[in-house]
Amino acid sequence: MSAQRNILITGGAGFIGSHVVRRFVTKYPNYRIINLDALTYAGNLENLRDVEKASNYVFVKADICDAEALTKVFKGYALDGVVHLAAESHVDRSITDPLSFVRTNVFGTVTLLNAAREAWKGSMEGKRFYHVSTDEVYGSLHDDGLFLETTPYDPQSPYSASKAASDHFVRAYGNTYKLPFVLSNCSNNYGSHHFPEKLIPLMINNIRNNKPLPVYGKGENVRDWLWVEDHASAIDTIFHTGRNGETYNIGGHNEWKNIDLVHLLCGIMDRKLGRAEGESAKLITYVTDRAGHDLRYAIDAGKIERELGWKPSITFEVGLERTVDWYIANTEWLDHVTSGAYLHYYEAQYAR
Ligand code: NAD
Ligand code: DAU
């Protein structure tokens, strides 16, 4: 049985955060898990219905930019660990509204670092601040090469610039104030509870509704996809066994050109929905490219595999099948999150 601990997870009502909360609440009954989330458009407590009544789970609605609220949580729950996922996470939104990304990802992260530093100033022994980041901080690759932990930062979008800044602040607090930290940079996640502004759930939702499938540019950009529950297991591994002050890259060794991935999804959906082969692919529509669109991301996840023994547990074929099945079985969830504000976002984003 694991020791008793009080762990704060920020952004736990979002896509990846909800998988991390579920994993920690169920796997570590001795831990008290405090999920702090501002419930922005991307936060949804429906994602956590199956664990919300667990005796070791607490939800706190608060903003990571609110220093007073954070101090209260650190004191009230005697926190000894933080897994920080709260962020503005969508590149397209960062292009239309960069300041929201500076506010949450930079100012919010530094406010959280300050709260941890203040609460732990007596003794940093046994404390850990885990910052969850992205491979996008490394910039864009051409046809070959992989991102290593030593790859120089070269962020290209307001989103990745804000995440890069937050990573720098975490390392600076480690160096200056000796705050014990670990950091990870992960590739694109996919799986259940993914907000349908992102490629895979957006395509699944549009295919089921017979709506155009908007592929940016020529669809030649490449992403390295990892099943979200494998990201959660990597976070668990790093949080518990990662070396203090280290960075770990996490990825699926699973590169796909967007257009090939959309065709693959169309084929799976044709089969699941009983449509004729090739029917869904007729919905593919090439649209104006994303401004400053990064061509390719690909992670070398050798360090986490060698040092901590982590690797992805399932293949993309299995993960994608499971993901599609989840969305088909949870159309209510999709309908719910795509009503209201989503419609305005969608109109503005794709009307160009
Ligand atoms: P998401 O957008 O689905 O969820 C973000 C969560 O943070 C939401 O619940 C939202 O309500 C909350 N939040 C936003 N602003 C907040 C604030 N000011 N205070 C408190 N809570 C706030 O994001 P995600 O895709 O689950 O990503 C989680 C983290 O993982 C992010 O830090 C992201 O940069 C990183 N990441 C994501 C991916 C990916 O493929 N999605 C890959 C690598 C790293
Ligand atoms: O690499 C990790 C990052 O992956 C995370 O840090 C981000 O939080 C996450 O959003 C994701 O960023 P991307 O920009 O790669 O993901 P997105 O799903 O927005 O887009 C994936 C690819 O698909 C990208 O090349 C843009 C393209 N795309 C996206 C959308 C939404 C389209 O062609 N059409 C679309 O409608």
Secondary-structure map with pairings?
Blueprint: E1 5-10, H1 15-27, E2 31-37, E3 57-61, H2 67-76, E4 81-84, H3 91-96, H4 98-119, E5 128-134, H5 158-177, E6 181-186, E7 188-190, H6 199-208, E8 213-216, E9 222-227, H7 228-241, E10 247-250, E11 255-257, H8 258-273, E12 284-287, H9 302-308, H10 316-329, H11 331-337, H12 341-350
Parallel strand pairs: 1-2, 1-4, 2-3, 4-5, 5-6, 6-10, 7-9, 8-12
Antiparallel strand pairs: 9-11
The protein binds nicotinamide-adenine-dinucleotide (NAD) and 2'deoxy-thymidine-5'-diphospho-alpha-D-glucose.
Residues 89-91, 134-136, 187-188, 198-199, 202, 214-216, 221, 223, 258, 290, 297 line the site of 2'deoxy-thymidine-5'-diphospho-alpha-D-glucose.
Structure, explained:
The mean pLDDT is 97. This protein has a domain of 233 residues: NAD(P)-binding Rossmann-like Domain (Rossmann fold, 3-Layer(aba) Sandwich), CATH 3.40.50. By secondary structure, the protein is α/β, with parallel strands linked by helices. The structure holds nicotinamide-adenine-dinucleotide and 2'deoxy-thymidine-5'-diphospho-alpha-D-glucose. The site of nicotinamide-adenine-dinucleotide has 30 residues, from helix 1, helix 4, strand 5 and strand 7.
